[in-house]
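Reminder to self: tokens first, then the designed residues, so the page reads top to bottom the way the pipeline ran.
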């Protein structure tokens, strides 16, 4: 206690000495701040203004616009005013103001003259720029293409070049020589009559620009003179500013000497205070060292133990407990604390392991896409993850700890069924029945909203069960859509192949009928019968073309379409698509009105609507297809008397893959395809439906102004020098080959018919060289017609080659890249003769 009392007295004495010394120092600093610092600050501000004034003069001289000149002049005048004000504030009655005032007045006058010269330079520069633009016009006339020879007289060109050069020279001597040269050249131009053809205005303008009062050389001379005068004023202004700076610097030096004197006084006051403080500090230090040694000897051990306990409380377990080997009370305390420390470390390790396992389990559960449920040995729910909650929340079920599987399943809606592996049928889950996943390791649950859950269960060592639930709904829907798409693709391939073969048969029928009709012994009744058969064959050919368009074997392009005629041609397909139980009625009132769109897509859209309407009338009903012209638009309406569409589903019927049919019975793409076609064609689509009464779908398209009915395009005719008197015919269909042979023979051609490409090449190798080779594109096994055409074009380039096919030209265009003539099947004898005439 005595040591601490002495230390307190020394600290009080140290405080008093320090306080007195700081008071003295404060007085000296106050005097220093009150007298010297304000003057130094004002002098520095004055020096800064003079420096800015020296930098402003070049900016003022280089001003390019009146606005920048006014701005720089304003800045310079403001600096002069501030320098005058600061000089008066620093030394109102002393010699500094008397030395600065003349310099400030001189700088003000120089800046005013510099502003005037800069304004004059701007005016001269502007006038010179205007004259240079006029000189550029003269140069354009002198160097323009197509001018008469005298317009490009070299004397005038030299005058123009001298003026251009004079606008950029920098020395008066060079400018004087150029001026003398220009005057001499002008005299020479007058003597040579160099202005002939250019006019008096051209001569007057050139002389004005050369030797006039506002000539380019004279303006450039004025500009050089003004630049020199401005440079001199800038130099004078900067010299004046440097002298101002020198005067201010000398004043600052005087203030610096005063500040040095004040600083020495402050330093002496601080030094005396520091000496007293140092002595007292040494005394206090000696007392503190003695007291510290005494306290350390008594309580040092307790402090070390307390430090270790504090670090342990903060979580630091790396420091060992000190003083455990002592035999006194401190040693006993240290050993007791060591026991507590070891127990705490074991507990912390256990908690850390449990926390790590819990975080790992939570991370695994939350990252799973499938639902997870864990039941204990008593069959009660103990653990589940978020994906399972989301699956059950869709059905309004919230899992809770302790729920048995039976109670969890009872919350689901009725109509649940399940199927185990190895079973093809679904079994309904009766109320109160044991859930299937307790009896099977793998089951599939089917819910009334068409959702399918895959449930896999495994037994745990303690008797519990772990179940993994996977949502298979989207996967099954995609599988169904893929199967439907594959079926559509197979149907398209089958339709395209059948239509191609059918065109071959039709070609035989149409050709034979044409040959029979040309017989002179045919009576009127027989001729009428043949014409009736020909019309039936033509309708079959049109049906084949529609089948090719439906199967997408025929490229579709926008064209004028008479909708009423199109619907009448499609009656057979509409009846077939609607079915025998549906009565089809037509109310076609559009007449000859046509629209410009893709006919094939319009036919497919109409068939899609017919098929949808027929599906809504499984027991039969009435289907009406109506057309009319309304307000510049053609309206196509399909109305049925089916079951109708509920209001909640009407907004979804045009969405892709949306269907109300059972699984596997519809792709959900029909109406979405119709909707996309209508929108792409610039039309509108509307749906009206009432449950139990039927549905009406209306398509509206803008009428085509002045469009004529579509006319089938004629087959392209090849360019040739003469008719094809001899033909090599290649076709693998025997009946069609014989028919075409007869039609060609009736047209006066000599025909050599073969069944394959190999036979055709063999015939050509044997010396058969006709004027035309007509080959089918598809020739069965072996080479195709396109490959045959390429081979013939290479080996026998003089032989004309043509192709024919039951598929449209656009379908084989990507293969037939040789530009060969094309004949579309089926065709009759008249069409063939017309095509042959095109060979001339």
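Designed residues (840 positions):
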């Amino acid at each position: 206690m005595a040591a601490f009392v002495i230390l307190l007295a020394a600290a009080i004495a140290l405080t008093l000495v320090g306080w007195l010394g700081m008071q003295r120092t404060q007085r000296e600093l106050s005097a220093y701040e009150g007298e010297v610092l304000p003057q130094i600050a004002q002098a520095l501000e004055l020096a800064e203004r003079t420096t800015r004034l020296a930098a402003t003069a070049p900016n003022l001289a280089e001003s390019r616009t009146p606005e920048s000149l006014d701005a720089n002049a304003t800045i310079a005048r403001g600096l002069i005013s501030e320098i005058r004000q600061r000089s008066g504030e620093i030394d109102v009655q002393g010699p500094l103001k008397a030395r600065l005032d003349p310099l400030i007045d001189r700088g003000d006058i120089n800046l005013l003259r510099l502003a005037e010269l800069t304004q004059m330079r701007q005016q001269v520069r502007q006038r010179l720029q205007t004259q240079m633009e006029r000189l550029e016009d003269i140069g354009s006339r002198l160097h323009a293409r197509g001018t008469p020879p005298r317009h490009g007289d070299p004397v005038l060109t030299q005058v123009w070049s001298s003026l251009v050069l004079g606008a950029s020279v920098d020395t008066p001597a060079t400018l004087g020589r150029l001026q003398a040269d220009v005057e001499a050249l002008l005299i020479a131009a007058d003597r040579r009559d160099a202005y002939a053809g250019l006019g008096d205005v051209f001569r007057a303008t050139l002389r004005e620009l050369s030797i006039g009062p506002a000539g380019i050389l004279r303006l450039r001379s004025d500009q050089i003179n003004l630049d020199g005068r401005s440079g001199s004023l800038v130099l004078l202004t900067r010299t004046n500013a440097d002298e101002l700076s020198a005067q201010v610097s000398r004043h600052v030096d005087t203030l610096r000497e005063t500040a040095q004197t004040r600083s020495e006084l402050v330093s002496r006051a601080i030094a005396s205070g520091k000496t007293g403080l140092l002595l007292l500090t040494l005394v206090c230090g000696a007392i503190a060292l003695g007291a510290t040694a005494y306290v350390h000897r008594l309580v040092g051990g307790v402090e070390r133990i307390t430090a270790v306990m504090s670090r342990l409380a903060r979580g630091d377990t790396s420091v060992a407990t000190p003083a455990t080997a002592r035999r006194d009370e401190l040693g006993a305390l240290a050993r007791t604390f060591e026991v507590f420390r070891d127990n705490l470390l074991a507990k912390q390790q256990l908690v850390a392991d449990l926390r790590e396992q819990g975080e790992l389990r939570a991370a695994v559960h939350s990252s799973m896409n499938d639902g997870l449920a864990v039941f204990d040995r008593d069959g009660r729910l103990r653990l589940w993850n978020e994906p399972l909650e989301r699956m059950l929340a869709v059905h309004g079920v919230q899992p809770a700890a302790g729920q048995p599987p039976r109670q969890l399943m009872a919350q689901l809606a009725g109509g649940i069924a399940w199927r185990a592996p190895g079973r093809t049928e679904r079994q309904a889950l009766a109320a109160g029945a044991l859930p299937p996943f307790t009896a099977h390791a793998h089951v599939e649950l089917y819910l009334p909203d068409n959702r399918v859950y895959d449930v896999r269960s495994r037994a745990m060592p303690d008797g519990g069960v772990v179940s993994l639930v996977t949502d298979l709904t989207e996967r099954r829907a995609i599988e169904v859509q893929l199967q439907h798409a594959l079926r559509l693709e197979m149907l398209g391939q089958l339709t395209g192949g059948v239509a191609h073969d059918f065109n071959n048969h039709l070609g035989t029928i149409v050709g034979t009928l044409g040959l029979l009709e040309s017989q002179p012994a045919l009576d009127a009744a027989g001729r009428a019968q043949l014409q009736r058969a020909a019309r039936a064959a033509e309708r079959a050919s049109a049906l084949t073309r529609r089948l090719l368009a439906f199967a997408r074997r025929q490229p579709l392009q926008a064209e004028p379409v008479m909708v009423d005629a199109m619907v009448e041609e499609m009656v057979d397909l509409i009846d077939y698509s609607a079915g025998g139980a549906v009565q089809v009625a037509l109310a076609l009132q559009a007449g000859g009105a046509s629209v410009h769109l893709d006919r094939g897509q319009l036919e497919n859209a109409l068939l899609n609507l017919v098929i949808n309407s027929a599906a809504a009338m499984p027991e039969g009903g009435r289907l009406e297809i109506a057309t009319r012209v309304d307000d510049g638009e053609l309206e196509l309406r399909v109305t049925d008397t089916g079951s109708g569409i509920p209001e909640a589903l009407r907004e979804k019927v045009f969405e892709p893959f949306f269907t109300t049919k059972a699984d596997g019975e519809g792709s959900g793409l029909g109406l979405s395809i119709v909707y996309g076609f209508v929108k792409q064609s610039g039309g509108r689509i509307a749906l009206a439906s009432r449950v139990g009464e039927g549905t009406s779908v209306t398509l509206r398209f803008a009428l085509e102004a002045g469009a004529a009915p579509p006319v089938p395009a004629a087959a392209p005719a090849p360019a040739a020098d003469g008719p094809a008197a001899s033909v090599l015919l290649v076709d693998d269909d025997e009946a069609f080959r014989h028919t075409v042979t007869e039609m060609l023979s009736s047209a006066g051609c000599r025909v050599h018919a073969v069944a394959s490409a190999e036979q055709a090449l063999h015939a050509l190798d044997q010396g058969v060289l006709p004027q035309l080779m007509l080959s089918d594109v598809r020739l069965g096994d072996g080479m195709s017609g396109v490959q045959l055409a390429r081979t013939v074009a290479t080996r026998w380039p003089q032989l004309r080659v043509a192709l024919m096919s039951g598929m449209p030209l656009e379908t084989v265009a990507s293969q037939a890249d040789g530009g060969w003539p094309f004949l579309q099947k089926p065709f009759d004898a008249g069409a063939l003769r017309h095509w042959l005439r095109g060979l001339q």
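The CA atoms of residues 129 and 548 lie 76 Å apart.
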